[in-house]
Write a structure and sequence with these properties.
alpha/beta; 9 helices
């Protein structure tokens, strides 16, 4: 990540491309025990956060990602009561989960507490449900927490993590997926952010192999735009234990106060380009 003389800050990607924003003000910079955290006020995307030089969240486009990481999985489950979020430190996904009145318990396990505390300060709209009595915020290693969780203790697991490098790499491997399957009740659903369909085809192909190897019966990619991430095109991958994706609660979907997601959008997200659909 670098700033030019014209106050533009760019994240350079190994694809030979970059995503940049015109920065009006540096709001905060610190090195947490886990990563570099930078927060800026940009001219057209509002407040933006970068972790280790990679854009993570902006005011203007975060709703797309957070809605797609939460509502498709929750609405594809007949009765989600207990939801676990691994990562998700900016709390936008948690906010969307909390819109579902039938959810009784939401546990979020984020490794870096500073990401959440800074989000509460600079992205308060994303953290407006942090004090919901159904919410438990934990700051520890998500893989270890999952290993210690009881079997059959969750209905939906949302893995809202960073790229599959460093501490997050294990969140994309078969042992972790097996742990998730054991934690899920029958019919439970796992959803995982799965990078760019354009730049990370190999990762999506690996997930199609690893999730069934871990015991999941159905795997489904969802694709959606995400301007602040490499290529501007992103994905999430859902997996279901014990059967296919044969439930979608349209009535509940239509009651949600969303900006991007609606029932027809799920059908669009499931429709993949030929090179991904095989």
């Amino acid at each position: 990540m670098a700033m030019s003389d014209s106050n533009w800050i760019h994240e350079f990607h190994d694809s030979g491309s970059a995503i940049g924003y015109e920065v009006l003000e540096v709001l905060h910079q610190e090195r947490s025990p886990f990563q570099q955290i930078d927060i800026y006020r940009t001219r057209t995307f509002g407040t933006a956060m970068a972790l280790d030089g990679c854009w993570m969240v902006t005011d203007r486009d975060n709703f797309i990602y957070h809605e797609m990481m939460s509502h498709p999985a929750l609405l594809s489950h007949p009765a989600p009561r207990d939801v676990v979020i691994i990562g998700g430190g900016d709390c936008g996904t948690l906010r969307e989960v909390a819109r579902h009145e039938d959810v009784a318990r939401i546990v979020q396990i984020e490794l870096d507490e500073r990401v959440t505390r800074l989000s509460e300060q600079f992205f308060p709209e994303l953290c407006e449900r942090n004090d919901d009595p159904r919410v438990e915020l934990r700051f520890e290693d998500g893989i270890r927490w999952m290993e210690a969780s009881g079997p059959g203790s969750a209905d939906v697991i949302i893995v809202d993590c960073t790229d599959p490098v460093g501490p997050a790499a294990g969140l994309y491997d078969v042992p972790f997926f097996r742990t998730c399957r054991e934690t899920l009740r029958p019919g439970g659903i796992l959803i995982q952010q799965s990078e760019s369909p354009l730049f990370h085809v190999e990762l999506l192909a690996a997930l199609r192999e690893r999730l069934p190897e871990a015991g999941f019966d159905a795997v489904q990619h969802l694709q959606f735009p995400q301007p602040c991430y490499p290529s501007g095109w992103w994905s999430a991958t859902m997996a279901r234990r014990d059967g296919q994706f044969d439930v979608f609660r349209n009535n509940a979907a239509n009651r949600l106060a969303t900006r991007y997601f609606h029932p027809e959008m799920l059908a669009a997200a499931r429709t993949l380009p030929r090179f991904l659909a095989g």
